[in-house]
Design goal:
Radius of gyration: 14 Å
Number of strands: 0
Family: Belongs to the CARF family.
Structural class: mainly alpha
Organism: Carlito syrichta
Shape: globular
Low-confidence stretches: none
Largest sheet: none
Protein name: CDKN2AIP N-terminal-like protein
InterPro entries: XTBD
Strand content: under 5%
Oligomer: single chain
Pfam families: XTBD
C-alpha cells in the first residue's frame, strides 16, 4: 500500500510540475494530451547542469506535436 501511495504522489507531483506550461488557449482535451506527451518524454529532456535548455526543447516539441495532432499543421 505504501508503494502505491508513493507512486500516486509522484504522478501528482509530475502533473503539478507540468501544469505551469499549460497555454491559456488550450482546451482540456488538448492540454491532457500535451501533458501526457511532456511527462512521457521528460526523463529524456532533463536540463543538464550547464543549463543546456533541454526542457525548452521538449516544450517546443510538445507544441509542434499538439499542433500537428489537433490542428493538422
Amino acid at each position: 500500500a505504501a508503494a502505491v501511495e508513493e507512486l500516486v504522489s509522484g504522478v501528482r507531483q509530475a502533473a503539478d510540475f507540468a501544469e505551469q506550461f499549460r497555454s491559456y488557449s488550450e482546451s482540456e482535451k488538448q492540454w491532457k494530451a500535451r501533458m501526457e506527451f511532456i511527462l512521457r518524454h521528460l526523463p529524456d529532456y532533463r536540463d543538464p547542469p550547464d543549463g543546456g535548455g533541454r526542457l525548452d526543447q521538449l516544450l517546443s516539441l510538445s507544441m509542434v506535436w499538439a499542433n500537428h495532432l489537433f490542428l493538422g499543421c
